[in-house]
Design a protein that fits this description.
By secondary structure, the protein is of the alpha+beta class. Helix content is 34%, strand content 29%. The chain has a single domain, classed as Endonuclease I-creI, CATH 3.10.28. The chain has a five-stranded mixed beta sheet, with helices on both faces.
Length: 157
């Protein structure tokens, strides 16, 4: 079970530690380069936790509402590149929108907490894939530029 406050703390920690935000941007860039976002509902995911940096992998968890499960074909595309992808149903605790006095927690001015069903997709991405995508993009960009090396140019008289 997850709580909205945990998600807020995770996002705040991303901005507090510079390299963590960079790792998340690299993680997202790989997902984008592999065209995972063309599959249904993948673009609607929200960061739940991570990135967690380990020796060989970077791990992030994303969440979707229960009625918007991301298409598993997008996950398969990640699996084909060496990522580990797991899907599970879970609950997210969120405060209720206050519309009547029954929506308040007893003795407080805060809304009751309700559990909402969500899908959680955990992606464990190899660091070498992240590095290859970064360096591969750089190589493609430099290949498209015209060469300034003219080789051996002997003057013809």
């Amino acid at each position: 079970m997850h709580d909205v406050l945990d998600i807020i703390k995770n996002v705040q920690s991303l901005y507090a530690v510079g390299p963590t935000l960079g790792a998340l941007k690299d993680f997202e860039r790989v997902i984008d380069e592999l065209d995972v976002y063309v599959f249904q509902n993948w673009e609607d995911g929200e960061l739940l936790s991570g990135p967690v940096d380990s020796r060989h992998f970077v791990t992030c968890s994303f969440m979707w509402p229960a009625d918007k499960m991301p298409d598993p074909a997008g996950g398969k595309r990640l699996l084909d590149k060496g990522c580990k992808v797991s899907y599970k149903k879970d609950e997210l605790l969120k405060p209720r929108e206050i519309k009547s006095p029954e929506d308040y927690r007893p003795g407080t001015t805060k809304g009751k907490i309700d559990a909402h069903d969500i899908w959680v997709v955990e992606i464990k991405m190899p660091k070498n894939l992240i590095g290859n995508m970064k360096h591969g993009k750089d190589e493609i960009e430099t290949q498209g530029e015209p060469s300034t090396d003219l080789g051996n140019t002997d003057e013809i008289s």
